[in-house]
Amino acid sequence: MPSRKRIVVLHLAGRYPLGGIGWQALHYVLGLTRLGHDVYYVEDSGANPYDPRVRSVVGDAAYSVAFLADVMARFDLSHRWAYVDAVTDTCHGVSRERLSRLYREADAVFNVCGATRLSEEHLRCPVRVYLETDPVFEQIRVAEGDQRAIEDLQDHTHHFTYGENLGQPDCPIPLEKFAWRPTRPPVILDLWATPFDPRAERFTTVATWKNVGKDISFRGETYHWSKHMNFLQVVDLPRRTRQVLDMALQVDDPATRDLLARNGWILTDVFEVSRTLTTYQRHIQQSRGEFTVAKDLVARTRSGWFSDRSVCYLAAGKPVVTQDTGFGRFLPAGVGLLAFRTVEEAAAALAEVNRDYERHCRAARRVAEEHFAADRVLERLCREADL
User: Fold this and answer.
1) What does the alpha-carbon distance between residue 74 and residue 68 come to, in Å, rounded to a whole number?
2) Is the N or C terminus of the chain more exposed, i.e. has fewer CB atoms within 10 Å?
3) pLDDT tens digits, residue range 10-35?
């Protein structure tokens, strides 16, 4: 890197204290640190945290603070994080004075997931990066003239998205008002290296069955911020393959759980899988591969989106069979990474992986190395953000 920068990463691993969210944050914090930057992790969105033990938003941040403290301590970052508890007006991690000084001294703020509405303190920072991990929703709000969305995005100096195909002829979602640049989920490869295990049996994933509250309409179409519709399109997949399929899934409806069980899906407790970084990582590393679908709004729009969770599978040398979102224009789908549109294609992809499993495992790791390695992804992001 040309010079060492002080970077504040805003995110929501305390707001949603789960293994996958924690890894998403760490790949940015550690990845930028390994590039030589002076990096701090901060949450001060003012939002109350979700407690996965009771599956509800709560007023007590103790569980979230303990989760963050454990995550940061594991990677020797105990002096480089802050969580501002809006209920008690308490700053955990670094002191409030240190946090204010960080904002004054920082060269850049990376607002990952758009987790934080920027305050006056944030706006003092010369480079303010909006890093969108779930595309389409904000682009539609802008195209529809949503002034709140436009103002929030205008508070940032640079805009990046995982939607690599947005604005292209085969994608109905336009890019208006802002110069959105494509980026990808970074992964720190050495943290995920996993010995080849031909005995691994289950294709797995970690997901929420149904999300509510962020469906959005555009030009006569309603796009859904949820995966359940696409899971239902392949609900009989276990009947079409000998491959064991296991979903760590939050499903509250007994009728839905019965439907999945009757069709041959194995359902695993999602909290037990996601409780810590270690349980989440172990679940992926012990899997044979990943089978999953995407949210309706990123799949039906052919946004080009790709999952940071799937990237972890690839980095662990685990083949990924996932729903086509248009990412094949940018990533080498076919070996190690396979895309499907129909249940028949999904069954054929699983059979293809199992015909030469070791070859697909080697290819999966190679896709991660060539297209998602944190040093490559973040070096380019920093360069394009004028850092």
Assistant:
1) 10
2) N
3) 999 999 999 999 999 999 999 999 99
Residues in the chain, pLDDT under 70: 1-2
Residue 311 near residue 290 (C-beta atoms within 8 A) = no
Question: Structural domains in the chain?
Answer: 6-186+373-384 (3.40.50), 189-371 (3.40.50.2000)
Which is nearest to 266 in space by CA: 289, 248, 284?
A: 248
Closest to 71 (Cα-Cα) out of 113, 16, 7? 16
| Model pTM above 0.90 | yes
Q: H or E stretch including 104?
A: helix 96-105
